[in-house]
Amino acid sequence: MKEFRFGRVSRRKALSMLAAAPVLSSLAPERARAQQTKPGGTLIVALEGEPPTLSPYLNTGSTGLIPSTNYLNFLVTLDPKLNPQPDLAQSWQIPDDGKTYIFHLAPNVVWHDGKPFSSADVKFTLEKVLPIHPRASTWWTPNLDGVDTPDAKTVVIRLKSPFAPFMSILGMPGAGPQIFPQHIYDGTDPKTNPANNKPIGTGPFVFTDWVRGDHLEFARNEHYFKKGLPYLDRLVIRFLPDLSARMLALQNGEVDFVHYYIVPFGQIAEIKKWGTVTVDERGGEGAATSEFTLLNLRHPILGKLPVRQAIATALNKKEILAKSVAGLGKVQDAAINSHVAWAFNPDVAKYDYNVAEANKMLDAAGYPRQADGTRFSLSISWATGRDYEGLTAEVMKDQLRAVGVKVDIKKMDVATFIDRVFLNWDFDMAQQLLTTGPDPTISVTRIYHSKQIKKASFVNAMGYNNPAVDKLLDEEFMQTDQAVRAKMWKEIQDYVVKDLPVL
Hints:
By secondary structure, this protein is of the alpha/beta class. It is built from 17 helices and 17 strands. 48% of the residues are buried.
């Protein structure tokens, strides 16, 4: 219910910087009313780069999700406590078998082109479009038994077995199904349909224009099915990959809304002093984001575990945290963020910072220093927009120099980064922010399952393949007892930390 977050901005100078992950969480309606939100006006949002496509099924990063959550709807959304709330589905029942979900759709919903929305659109999306989603193949295709539409306003989803995170997945941007129009996509390849870049949805805003290299424009949906919403007349999403330009636009009131992950963490205290910006630290509850360095295991040097262990030992994570995000975070060793408390494993193996030990490990791995003191060279790729990833790369470069590893930093735009890292596996190491919540089946499985070694965005680009991990990932989501799932996820994290496909 992202429109409440936008709805609180009633004039251009009422700026907001949301401290959230790439997910637009809701403000409760009563909070919006308490702020005496007035309808009308334009909100200008800053995005860290231009999206390669507007389809959230082909671009699951923030540049795809932020636009799509404004022109598309889900069956359900999640509130800040991660409880399902109505969206296209106004109510639902879950029979005792845990395998059947019955959704009753909201009345009077129409697509932006005036065509009526019905259960047929939901069935089509779930059966024909969702399977192309990089994350969905980890949970949807193996579990779906069938989708029935007894009438135009009822959808019955049948699963092969109980699936614990199902309702959380349905409402999670970047993982769950945003519903597509059957009349636009039926009979076409959903990967190449022109509507991917000229979208038609049921959401609160209607796509009107894409000015290449500059911005996206959306207008208020005058026929939106949620009474009184959206508050705004117009939404503009500007592409501002340059940090200085982005911050200047925010300070000058040329941009109204910036997500925290594309501002310098070290400047947040100063931003608060401007007096024109509200810093809101809520909104990332479901994402549980963590910063990872992906390691290409196909690389002739990085493919050797002793080398990866030595690199991990050579890195001072506390220094990286201090210099890249001004200490606004915490060091992580496990593959799941500690905010996902039930699944988090605090007892995984640790690679304590020790330069002398790292040097010994590299000697033993067969990489002695050459005459110039260098053992070998590696590159770190990062995408413009999240400048702390560039700072992280710089600190890593300095730290690895101490053990004879020469690092070349490759900075590129978001589209190029996705193409090189995820579609062509053309990288050594790569910085990537990833969600690990609200349930790890949604967010984490796609990174470590060998079935996800495919050329698609935000999946297993490292080439990591551990049959024991695959087996656990194939079985954990069928457990209805969370304690059993937690034990399995902690074992998965043990394997991942020992195998080091990521840092």
